[in-house]
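Ticket 4471: requesting a sanity check on a complex prediction with magnesium ion. Repro inputs:
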Amino acid sequence: MIRAPRPHGRPSIQTDLLNSAFSVLAAIAVFWVFATAVLAFVGLREELINANSVRIAGLADSLARPLSVADRFQTERILHAWVAANGASSAIVLDAAGDVAAVSGAADSQYRFADGAVGSATGLSEVRISHAVKDDDVRVGLVAATFTLDAVYHLIVLAAASLLLLAMLTLWLGRYVLKRLAIRVLRPLAELAAVADAVALSPDNGQRAIEGGPREVADLAKAFNTMLDVLQNKSEALDQKMRQSALTEAELGRLTLTDPMTHLGNRAGFLQELPRVAERSRQEGSNIAVIHLDLDDFKVINDSLGHEVGDRLLQAVAERLSARRRDGDSLCRVGGDEFALILASITSLRTAVDVVVTMLSALTETYEIDGRNLHIRASAGIALYPAQTEDLANLVRFADLAMHQAKSAGKNDYCVYTSELLSRTNDRLSMESELRRGLDNDEFELYYQPQVDIQSGRVVGLEALLRWRHPSGELIQPGYFIPVAEQSDLIVLLGRKIITMACRQWQEWREEGIEPRRLAINISGRQLADDDFASELLATMTQSGYPLPRLELEITESLLLSGMKIAKGTFRRLVAAGLEWSLDDFGTGYSSLTYLTKYPIHNLKIDRSFVTRLPGDESSEAIVKAILAMAKGLGMQVVVEGAETKDQIDYLKSIGAVVVQGYYYYRPLAADAVSDLLRQQATVGVSG
Ligand code: C2E
Ligand code: MG
Ligand code: MG
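Returned structure tokens:
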């Protein structure tokens, strides 16, 4: 505990006032003593005169006789005896003629030549008293005596000195008492005040008042110190809390900016870092590149091998990417399987491309996780600042756009942002919001295109094809909006709607007794990737309580080839429930056909592009024939799409094609038209 220093330095006004008061009191005391001395002097002198006047009257009486007889001897004797007895300094006796009859002591000429007046005369050093000497009322002479005032002076000086001493003593005592009071009471109080001031003004909470002085003051100081102790404890606790919370805040700040799994920055960290790097590059006059890197089909690994393996793979990817980044570049994990890289101070796009190429190829090397060999690829988008945009939000968006472009161009590649990409995206985004609105407003309908038995001409199946009845009145074809819907969750929402609509329609036909033999619906990759797809589909199909409609699910060959892993059991489960799988647009893929044996595919739909060149185009003919033969060998059915002419139909017949879906027979028809057709066919069937 630090004690407050005693206040020191120049005397206070209080001390000055006290000193002045004592000086004035001392002056007053001196004056008072002097005045008292003067008054005492006058009084004592008067008393001396009075007392000796009586005595000199007695002397005059005793001198009356000798003087009247001019007995000089007797006169002198009486005078001497009287002077000696009464302490006069001198005395003189004059006869009636005014001559000196007797003298005692050093009587000066004043007496000798006294005019004979009686009474007293006073001076500062002596008094003279004279008295007439009468004998039977006849004046026979005069006697005068002089007394010095030495005794009076002695008395007065003694008294004054005593008084002065007493006054000074009293003053000194007063001063001493006050001083003691100041030391004992005022000083501790002043110190207390000083400590209070110091505590209030300084950040040092350790100062304490001295607990000395009189009990009351000591108690006050003690109480004050206790209060300071309490305050200090509270303030220390508060400090600690603040330090703790500052720590927690820093820790929180660090945590909120870091991805705990890869220890890279997270999205927030990335967004915090970007402006810093951008500002630096702006000052340097260089560019920065933002690279958005997204793993291809990572969900498949997560779904099939579990999240633990997925996480390990992400860590391994993060390590590989980190190892290949240049000093000063920032790498962050900005989403599940998304990474963002900020390349600082680059002078040309080439640098960014080189980094991306190195990273992408590093990622393709085999990963060994839990004794398994895993492979993963990634797609990346590159955008430059400030060359392509000075807006950092746009910069991030552009890199993202470019990454998506790389994905849709076939994945495992990079794409550099271009403004043309943006305009396409803007179209896409406005289309997306339009689609969502359309979905909310039930603007979608299913058209159905009949599949016809080429021999009998009968409708053996229908393919449901989506149409968008736009509020403008236009009927929009799926080729225009499905690719957009496929870029987001919209295709899943649309897909659910299609399944519900198709099932409901099937139900209507069934109730009317004109249900088609089979109904095909198109399923896109995102729908299949959903674990719940099979359950949801089966739930929708059985909602009506009737037996399952004979649904056929069309997936594209490119979907199977993309390597996208369809949730385990989806195929099997749906096949077990009586559904069939069709491979749409068959022949447009260019991979081996071995995968056909891996999946339980029932039907192949030969793509229209082969049919349009029939007959005549040798390679188209060869392909169509080969597919027909292969399908036969694998026990699959074939639907030939896009036949528009009689020649095509004839040719297809000649090579043994069985079912055709093409404009030659029917275009996609609205549900009512299909109902008419089915009714008509049912009648023909019944009559035939
Ligand atoms: P797709 O599944 O191959 O459907 C066949 C497409 O070929 C249909 O086009 C159909 O109208 C067209 N087509 C059939 N015969 C002929 C013909 O003789 N000549 C010509 N020029 N075209 C013919 P549409 O209805 O425009 O559908 C285009 C694509 O949109 C579909 O190709 C399918 O991939 C997709 N699609 C349509 N409806 C849906 C749907 O409900 N869900 C999903 N995921 N995709 C759908
Ligand atoms: Mg189709
Ligand atoms: Mg097709």
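Notes from triage: The longest strand covers residues 138-148. Leaving this open until the requester confirms.
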